[in-house]
Amino acid sequence: MSSKRIRLFLFSGLLFCLALFLAAIPFVERHLEKELQVTELKNRIMATVKSSSPYALKIQGVRFSLIDGIIFSGVELSLERGPVLFHAENVLLRLSIWKALRGEDPLHEVYIPSGSLYPVRMHRERKTLNKALPVDLLKNRNIRITGLELILPGEARFVRPVARVLIQPSVDQARLSGEITSRLEGENARVTFHGNFIYNARSRFFFEFVNIGSRLTRYGLKASPLFSDDFRTFSRFIRLEHDPLQGKGSFDYEAGKLAINLEGQFEKLNLQFFRRDRLAIEANDQNGTFRYNAGFSSIQEFADFFDFQLTSPDLGTQIRYRSPALAGGHEYRFDLTLAEGAEMIFGGLPARGQLRLSSQLSYNKREEITPELDLTIQSLRVDLSSIYPGEFSSIDLKGIIKQSAGEMRSTLDGALLGFPLSARGEGKITFDPVRLDDLPLHALWQKHKWKLKLEEVAYDRVVSFVGAVVSGIYSAAHARNARRAEDSGPLWRTSFTDRRIYQLYLKYLTFDGELELRAKSPSSFPEVILADFGKTQASYQFNIPTARGNDASVYLRYYGTFDATMPRHDLRLELNLNKNAYELPGTRLRPARLNLNYHISGSGWYPYDLVFWTHSTMNLTMRDVDLSSLGPARILLYSMGQPDREARASLVSIARRTQAGYIDFTNIRVEAPSFEADGSASFESDLQGKMQLRYVFDENGTRKRDTVEMRTTDQGRWIPDE
């Protein structure tokens, strides 16, 4: 027989054996499945878990495969009376045929191709999960998971982290390695790790992370067990946005105790304290480094301590916490340093400055908290140009605020609108335990006494600034998406005093003070004006008792209360100028003499409410005033046929009333040497309106009478009404 035929015969025999083997596989698998008693194994495993732990393990099916070993399908781990913690379509117990032939334990690997883990549920049930799963079955076996999806709730519901893990056993320890990847809004986050895991002994592994996005960071601050309950409450007032982070770290674990160390770099970090309408400080586009370390006496509990440090050219901050187990009570320390020229946001306004803040507080869980505070302001300029553009559009401050042993002292100097400012205060700040919405919280309690002094005051600038603020309120109220009290529900169900901003920050804020204003000489206003101000739990007020000078007198009373629906406001102003040097706000009118009587009352918190839930009355008399800058005056002269006539009036008298967004000029009277006019006007909430003036004028020795009607355009210009 030739060699060619021999090779063909052998190849045919090999194919026949292979076909026979493949045909026999199902029979062999069924035989081994019966010999291994896989159904009994499944039941025994579920019974062992149930009897020795608070878990319930469900396995829907089991079968044997020569290639994959024992395959459990529909595996679900949960608390006996609780949520599902883990789910996998298949869990494979891979066997070694050679070990089986030698009479050894044949199981050499537990392989999970894919599964779902709910880590937050496990964290929430940490008090129930006080016993570990029986690990005898897993001890000293390879455990390989290639696609473990971590299901996260809340803000991270669009985050889909997937873990790949391999545990390789040895005689006394296991080698742990793998990675966690996450796709978030088109960005890939990845954590790779490796190290030694020792059963019931000390374990350590290291990891590196890249492309950690802002949402993952925010979620970690809000929900992670790496911080205490109190810090996670505080973290609601911290907002972090950044380009993806990268760095490295390590974990140490021993007998239930855990230590964590992280360090890394960040770019274009934006940091905010007290978000939205309670925004206090903001720093933008920061590059730098961060460090975090923490220790846990039990992996089921919150941190016994943590230190977080963030450093950049403009910003440095450190937050430190110590638990009662280490400090006898909860202990926090917060340090913030802003370098010269650092950009910030104070109360929604842009600012630049240099300051250093250090605060520390210690307390037991439900006790009053009295912080230690040390704030040094080397320089701080708050920009007011968005409200009042011009040369003097800022607040400048420097000084210190310190609270120690429960007593606070403040010494601040600077300038407001260019006027020298000094502020001296004393008081106390604490956080008192309260229950709100059946939650144990701490409310801010403050009591202060202030003495403020403004010198070299130019009152035309003060009047112009007040006019700009009022104009800003009207503009904000008419914005398309202006916020309203009704946004929180019907007014009859909306209680301002039930809101958290009142219950936690305004209710227990009390202060009183004195304000001294010294006029820049010469001035039509009184040389010195003394005002008092204050706030109690239920009301607030600012008063200027009648102040008289040679050429003027002024009286102001502002009083407000915290109504059940919205705060209530009431303001009265009486102003008399016998020798005026100031333009009226929003106009170019400069009357020689002026008498104003103004009263406004209403409700509101947002600008929309302040405008549309108020009514007012005003009586204004001006003498010897040039009206040529007013559109209605030019239209009046044009209708007389005398557009070049002087528009100086010896008397202008206006009576006006407002109701919500409607403005009615019930009486307008103008007296001039050669003509007289009287009439009325009305405006709607969109600031459009109509005016009618009846006038009498002299023309060539003849008295003539007529009426002119006018209206405003969308841009607010007055035009004749055809």
What is this entry, summarized?
The chain is an alpha+beta fold and 722 residues long. The protein has eleven helices and 36 strands.
Q: Overall 3D geometry?
A: elongated
Helix content: 10-25%
Q: Oligomerization state of this entry? A: single chain
Rg from C-alpha positions?
A: 39 Å
How would a crystallographer describe the biggest sheet?
36 strands, mixed
Number of strands: 36
Residue share in β-strands:
over 45%
* Coarse structural class: alpha+beta
Unreliable stretches covering 5 or more consecutive residues: 20-25
Distance between the termini: 122 Å
Q: What's the overall average pLDDT, rounded?
A: 80
- The number of helical elements comes to 11
Task: Provide an overview of this structure.
- By secondary structure, this protein is an alpha+beta fold.
- It is built from 11 helices and 36 strands.
- It has a 36-stranded mixed β-sheet that branches.
- The N and C termini lie far apart (122 Å).
